[in-house]
């Protein structure tokens, strides 16, 4: 049966791409093979120096390639949203893929619950084309339903559920209300966006079957600069969470603080495990200033550090305490 796009202006797919000629075809083909096609696909060629734009441009009339100077994925997504004509925005990165049921599954949920403004879903984790895991469901792990609506997206995040960009479908008007992706954040801009959406629009739809494939392991390692940037942007995101708290209803603040403690713990653990003790000390100072170092934070730190680093980490923590940090 011939597949046809949604009615004009319904769904725009936004794909930021930088030097992605090796993966862009599979990414785009996964969109073009949807059982329900989008109305347009916008590829933001973020200053690529390979054939990314040329390859993408020749695959389908649904694809619109827009080239800009290299500005990062946040700026590229913002540009795509600005250029979009769709009522709904769906995201995908140039090295990931959708499953063929992605849009159909989410629009089925939307027909059942027409008042939700955004939704997400499960995804497979793929390494070298093999599925090696699945995303965390958090509080949804015991549900039997394939689809559901969660009353509070902040509670969903606090429970450890994964909201990944490649599964998010959001109304363009909702994005207009909460603002752009933060271009200052190189690695946490997506999570920052989900928090802002969750504060403004608590109810979120969720598809409890994998609807996308998230590729890992393409890069052998992060550079020291990239690791530092990741830590810095995590701190920036935490600062924004703290600034947001006064605007969150009191009965929901606990979820946001739980998530903030969880992210702070992860950031500091990464620094300690990598042996970056000076950097970890500075991070601890920053986290202390954010007043996130309560018992949940330290308990999580103590119980999740692997045995092979527990002794040096404990010694390091004691030295910090002696110095009054």
UniProtKB/TrEMBL annotation:
Q: Which residues form the Glycosyltransferase 2-like domain?
A: 12-119
Tell me a Gene Ontology molecular-function term this record carries: glycosyltransferase activity
Stored InterPro entries: Glyco_trans_2-like (IPR001173), Glycosyltransf_2 (IPR050834), Nucleotide-diphossugar_trans (IPR029044)
Q: Which SUPFAM superfamilies match?
A: Nucleotide-diphospho-sugar transferases
**EC number(s) per UniProt?**
2.4.1.305
Tell me which UniProt keywords the record has, alphabetically: Glycosyltransferase, Transferase
Q: What is this protein called?
A: UDP-Glc:alpha-D-GlcNAc-diphosphoundecaprenol beta-1,3-glucosyltransferase WfgD
Highest classification ranks of the organism: Bacteria, Pseudomonadati, Planctomycetota, Planctomycetia, Pirellulales
